[in-house]
Amino acid sequence: MRIENISFIEVKSPGAHIFSKFPIPRLGSILLSTILRDEGYNVMVFIEDILEPDGSFIENSDIVCISTITSTAIRAYELADRLRKSGVTVIIGGAHPSFLPEETLEHADYVVRGEGDHTLPELINYLKNGMPSIESIQGISYKDDSGKIVHNSSRPLLEDMDALPEPDFSLIHGWKPSNIYPVSTSRGCPFNCRFCSVIPMFGRRYRFKSADTTLKGLRYVASVSKATVFFVDDNFAANKNRTKAILKGMIDEAMKIGWSAQVRTDVAKDSELLRLMADSGCSTLYIGFESVNPRTLELYNKKQGVDEIVNCIKAVKEHGISIHGMFVLGADTDDVETIRKTADFAIKLGIDTVQFMMLTPLPGTPVFFEMRGSDRLLHTDWSKYDAHHVVFNPVMMRPETLHIETLRAMGRFYSWRYIFNHLMKFDFYYAAIGLYGKKAVKEALDKAKAYLETLELASEPSICSCK
User: Fold this and answer.
1) How many CA atoms lie within 13 A of 389 on its CB side?
2) Domain for residue 160, yes or no?
3) Does residue 164 belong to any structural domain of this protein?
4) Fewer CB atoms inside 10 A, N or C side of the chain?
5) Which residues make beta-bridge pairs with 19?
6) What would the pLDDT profile of 143-157 be if each residue is shown by its tens digit?
7) Looking at the domain assignment, is residue 464 inside a domain?
8) Which residues have C-beta within 8 Å of that of residue 71, sequence separation ≥ 6?
């Protein structure tokens, strides 16, 4: 097969929410495109949330690789179907196809399961040169000549993170340096939250780039962009000694980089780590608090208590670092009061920004298998599996109650008081976030009634208070 042009497409998110205004490209497509570019292919990456794709390049591509998570799967399938009808070979990868390859193969020629750093180049080489044999390529699913689905053995997780190239953002169609520059330094997570797809996808063993390699990458970022770095690692501080070495390097080299990252509450137990974070330019920590209900924290397997959450908030703010708090509502131990108390908690403790998300049983997670096994999933319209729509039957409330009360909790947080308080402090950035959040919540509530009415068809009787 002649292969010269390869397109990568990260399909558009199905709907807006509070942080849709700040789209951050997932790094998988950019990294894989960089690897294939280095092997001599003409590659371009299209991220639909950033800019409308160049149809002419895609249509003239020999292969199109589509990356999708669960909430974008339907859009990915529609695009793949259209491309295959025109004769283009389509490869689909990402978290959702990795867990549901049979479904995905109804729309793709090949599925790359799990990490594609070695799998995709091997598959491309097979398609181009007929070697190695397709049976030897670990981590792919496909249909053989008889139409039977074949799942080759899974590929072991990547060991040497330092061997990966720096993702080349210039390969993105229409890319312009924005206010946020995503950087990945690790994969996997040593914890095991029951609703999270990180462990099924990337494993529980924490694999990371060395401090030296990470600092080399940050020097490059500083040379090409003045944007704030966002470490997209699921837990940037999972190995605290490595994190400290990175931060000390940034301080010693006087890197002019503002940054933010995702961490757990345990960062607050290490005062040296917090001091280094503040001194190296950390503006915001994104912290998965998940719940203020002790029973829910235990059910989620969070390995943290409410007291730890309170202490974390106080310690982080004492170091001048802002907090973006993330909460997951709707566990079997949650009721309406849990949702309302969560909003009260976030306001009282002075969290700077929040996301109140509805528990979403993503394919591959223990929560998904349990809910599917007990027939609690309301539907499999994957576009609604975005943490902003209820998609299952909760135990202690109606589905529509979870949906509406979660949106109202967001509205209570992003209130006029929130906006005016920040205006009084001349903090126009957070005032603007408050205004955007208020607008996003209103739009979501306006759309909620139509969505919830579709659920009533399968769950009569229903009491919907969507005003």
Assistant:
1) 25
2) no
3) no
4) C
5) none
6) 999 999 999 999 999
7) no
8) 13, 14, 382, 383, 384, 385, 386
Q: Classify residue 454 as left (phi > 0), alpha (psi -120 to 50) or beta.
A: alpha
For the chain, the average pLDDT equals 92
Which tokens hold the place of 52?
Answer: 């409308």
How far apart CA 22 and CA 36 sit, in angstroms, is 28
Whole-angstrom distance, CA of residue 37 vs CA of residue 323: 38
Q: Which residues pair with 110 in a beta bridge?
A: 91, 142
Provide the residue range defining the domain that includes 403.
177-456
Question: Looking at this protein, which amino acid is placed at residue 14?
Answer: P
Rounded Cα distance, 102 and 181, in Å: 35
User: Whole-angstrom Cα distance, residue 127 to residue 150?
Assistant: 17
Task: Give Cα 60 distance to the centre of its chain.
Answer: 30
Counting Cα atoms < 13 Å in the Cβ hemisphere of 58 gives 23
CA 80 from chain center: how many Å?
Answer: 22
Domain count, the chain: 2
Going by the DSSP 8-state scheme, the letter that residue 331 receives in this structure is -
What is the average pLDDT across 50-56? 85
**Measured distance CA(66)–CA(77) in Å, rounded:** 9
